[in-house]
């Protein structure tokens, strides 16, 4: 029992010492709950309070999947290897919000499991979302050190590559259940595209260290351009408008700040990360992280690589 209680103390590191990085991560994971409580009055007086909370839980599941995927680029860019220590918390946190999402949906259906199952089978966006949740459950269930040893490092790594597909499915589900303005899903897609693009560039170029600042700038420009083009095509199809005119309008900066298109926001975020890399490359010395199970092909401690591969 004492050993179990010690394991539940997620704010402590493997040596049992208080980890401010874990404390900050735990606070980050609880932030959506705090936001919901802060907005409790508005939620309760809304048209469908439970539906509001359902969407909030699903949104944060996707956000924490992205946060999990962001650990690899950020630990390289900031030269702060200890970030890998909180990837497990972020990944399991994504699963918890996903479980809350489906549980609240079941409650909204008056706990009629037959109806819930029927809805999941008949509605494509629910099928996609549920598939993503099943995959996330499998990754969460195998995110322990014991499962790494039981599956073997190679099989475990292959299994956890599924997080990329899970993220894509969750993103599609987000788009499909968004009825009106899809600006936020589009921006989220841009962030996901940047995170995946980073991994593709590292793999294709066989980069062992950190990507250069010009490479990150180029990646950011490329992803932003794709977002601009994809959004213009999507709007043109929906409203039967000329794609080039839509693209020109999206590139126009003479609009209110709250109407700036997702492509610009993706570019701004990418350039901010590039600037961070430029500063860290000159000011920060990389710090190594130890692992009790040795290192894998990527030179990372296998024990610390949980929920999502670093490649």
Number of strands: 0
Q: What coarse outline follows from CA principal-axis ratios?
A: globular
Structural class: mainly alpha
Main β sheet profile: none
The residue ranges in which pLDDT falls below 50 over 5 or more consecutive positions are: 1-5, 289-311
Radius of gyration: 21 Å
Give me the strand/helix succession. HHHHHHHHHHHHHH
The fraction of residues in strands falls at under 5%
Number of helices: 14
Mean pLDDT rating: 87
Q: Describe it for me?
A:
This protein has 311 residues and is mainly alpha-helical. It is built from 14 helices and no strands. Helix 4 runs antiparallel to helix 5, helix 4 runs parallel beside helix 11 and helix 12 runs antiparallel to helix 14. It is globular, with a radius of gyration of 21 Å.
Short synopsis of the structure:
The protein is an all-alpha fold and 311 residues long. It has helices at residues 2-8, 20-38, 40-44, 49-77, 87-108, 113-122, 124-141, 145-151, 153-160, 162-177, 183-205, 213-239, 243-251, 262-283. The protein has 14 helices and no strands.
Outline the secondary-structure elements:
Blueprint: H1 2-8, H2 20-38, H3 40-44, H4 49-77, H5 87-108, H6 113-122, H7 124-141, H8 145-151, H9 153-160, H10 162-177, H11 183-205, H12 213-239, H13 243-251, H14 262-283
Highlighted features:
311 residues; 14 helices; 0% strand; globular; disordered C terminus
């Amino acid at each position: 029992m004492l050993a179990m209680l010690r394991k539940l103390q997620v704010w402590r590191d493997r040596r049992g010492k208080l980890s401010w990085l874990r404390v900050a991560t735990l606070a980050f994971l609880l932030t959506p709950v705090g936001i919901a409580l802060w907005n409790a009055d508005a939620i309760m007086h809304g048209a469908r309070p439970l539906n509001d909370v359902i969407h909030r839980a699903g949104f944060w599941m996707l956000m924490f999947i992205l946060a999990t995927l962001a650990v690899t680029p950020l630990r390289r860019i900031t030269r702060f290897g200890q970030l890998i220590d909180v990837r497990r918390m972020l990944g399991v946190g994504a699963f918890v919000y996903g479980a809350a999402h489906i549980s609240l949906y079941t409650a909204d259906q008056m706990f009629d499991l037959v109806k819930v199952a029927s809805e999941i089978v008949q509605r494509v966006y629910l099928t996609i979302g549920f598939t993503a949740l099943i995959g996330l459950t499998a990754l969460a269930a195998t995110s322990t050190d014991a499962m790494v040893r039981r599956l073997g490092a190679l099989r475990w790594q292959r299994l956890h590559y599924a997080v990329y597909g899970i993220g894509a499915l969750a993103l599609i589900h987000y788009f499909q259940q968004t009825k009106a303005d899809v600006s936020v899903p589009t921006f989220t897609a841009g962030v996901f595209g940047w995170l995946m693009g980073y991994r593709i560039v590292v793999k294709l170029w066989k980069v062992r260290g950190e990507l250069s600042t010009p490479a990150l700038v180029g990646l950011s420009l490329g992803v932003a351009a794709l977002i601009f083009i994809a959004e213009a095509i999507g709007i043109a199809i929906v409203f039967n408008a000329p794609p080039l005119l839509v693209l020109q309008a999206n590139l126009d900066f003479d609009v209110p700040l709250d109407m700036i298109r997702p492509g610009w926001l993706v570019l701004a975020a990418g350039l901010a990360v590039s600037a961070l890399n430029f500063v860290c490359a000159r000011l920060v010395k990389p710090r190594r992280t130890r692992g009790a199970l040795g290192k894998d092909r990527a030179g990372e401690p296998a024990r610390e690589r949980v929920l999502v591969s670093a490649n």
